[in-house]
Design goal:
The protein is mainly α and about 375 residues long. About 70% of the residues lie in helices and about 5% in strands. It folds into two domains: about 5-45 and about 180-375, no CATH class; about 50-155, abc type-2 transporter like domain (abc type-2 transporter like fold), CATH 3.40.1710.
């Protein structure tokens, strides 16, 4: 066996043994990502159901009761109070006990039967934009459907031909028919956890060795700095691949994330992504003298990387002047690969730009980190 391979194997074996002996590090590398995946997978939920709703029925008529009943029949709105006036409803909104208040005026049934058009007021708590927009949309859809039904009934009573709709909308949801949040979020969470394991923990581990003097002792040995660097990076590479495999299993079995595409493409994208994250962690470690500095450096990199990756929210919500910065973020491209392969069954011909950018970032970050590591070892 070539002497360099012997040295490389020795460093890898030493790093693996040292990591396995440290139970805290093993827990951070394996158990902590799984626990975070479970917690975030269940906790991060954008599905809006059973929004607390108050109904102020000043009409006290058959029509107002029927409208309220049909509005609350689904699982979007949930009746929790029936105050007597708008002021009481506003108090409930102010106290946070309800998010929506529906107000039926006294003349609701009379206006409806006369055909002049009746109105229903919806008071919505705008402090939660997601919940508020869904609630308003549910009320508006119900009003439109109810108006169409009443128009047809009124035309029949007058002996006229019911108006015919010229446009019919037939919706079909692809890739995530049940619109489950976990199916969308879990691949992003896997990318985020991989970033924590390979960037933050690795940089802090190397900084700890620098603090204790272990790294300097290894650097004065006949070992080449490149062999030493690869030997220290390899265990984290293997742990990263293991964590991705565990995340895919948990995502598929617990959260129902589909596995429609090639897992080989996922493995290739993971290797390229790990080149970027490990290179970043190594670069942070070489620029840090203490674990505290490494932690701060890793946190300052991770926070914007996650926020500008589309892990939790769509990138379309980011201002145009900031979108260009997301193209420099490897987390974004890895998340797009995971969602494209797992949810849509996309292939390399569909995702080659993301693979190309991941390769470029990986080579660039590892190159810069290697050069920096050589300088610190010299």
């Amino acid at each position: 066996m070539h002497p360099l391979l012997v040295q490389y194997r020795a460093v890898v074996v030493k790093e693996v043994r040292q990591t396995v002996r440290d139970r805290r590090v093993m827990a951070l590398l394996t158990l902590a990502p799984l626990m975070q995946l479970f917690v975030l997978g269940f906790a991060v939920n954008f599905d809006v159901r059973r929004v607390p709703t108050a109904v102020v029925d000043r009409s006290r008529s058959v029509e107002s009761r029927e409208h309220a009943r049909t509005l609350l029949a689904g699982d979007t709105l949930r009746l929790i109070a029936e105050p007597h006036d708008e002021r009481s409803a506003a108090t409930l909104l102010e106290d946070g006990e309800t998010s929506v208040a529906l107000v039926f005026p006294p003349s609701f049934e009379k206006d409806l039967l006369r055909g002049d058009g009746a109105w229903v007021q919806a008071l919505v708590d705008g402090s939660d934009p997601v919940r508020s927009s869904v609630a308003v949309d549910a009320v508006a859809r119900h009003a439109a459907a109810r108006a169409s039904t009443l128009g047809m009934e009124q035309a029949r009573r007058l002996g006229r031909e019911p108006p015919r709709s010229t446009v019919t909308l037939e919706s079909r949801v692809l890739y995530n028919p049940a619109l489950e949040t976990a199916v969308y979020v879990v691949p992003g969470i896997a990318a985020m956890l991989l970033l924590i394991v390979t960037t933050l923990i690795m940089s802090m581990g190397l900084a700890r060795e620098r603090e204790t003097g272990t790294l300097e002792q290894l650097q004065v040995t006949p070992l080449r700095s490149s062999v030493l660097m690869l030997g220290k990076v390899t265990p984290f590479l293997l742990v990263g691949l293991l964590d991705v495999g565990l995340a895919l299993c948990v995502g598929a079995w617990v959260f129902g994330v589909p596995l429609r595409g090639s897992l080989l493409l996922v493995a290739l994208a993971t290797l390229l992504y790990l080149m970027s994250t490990l290179g970043t962690g190594l670069l942070i470690a070489t620029a840090s003298r203490t674990q505290q500095q490494a932690f701060v450096g890793g946190f300052l990199f991770m926070l914007p990387a996650v926020l500008l990756s589309g892990v939790m929210t769509s990138l379309r919500a980011i201002p145009d002047w900031l979108v260009w910065l997301t193209w420099l973020n490897p987390v974004r491209h890895y998340v797009e690969v995971l969602r494209g392969v797992l949810l849509k069954g996309a292939g390399l011909s569909d995702l080659w730009p993301q693979f190309l950018l991941l390769s470029g970032f990986g080579v660039l970050m590892l190159g810069i980190a290697t050069r920096r590591f050589h300088k610190t070892a010299a």
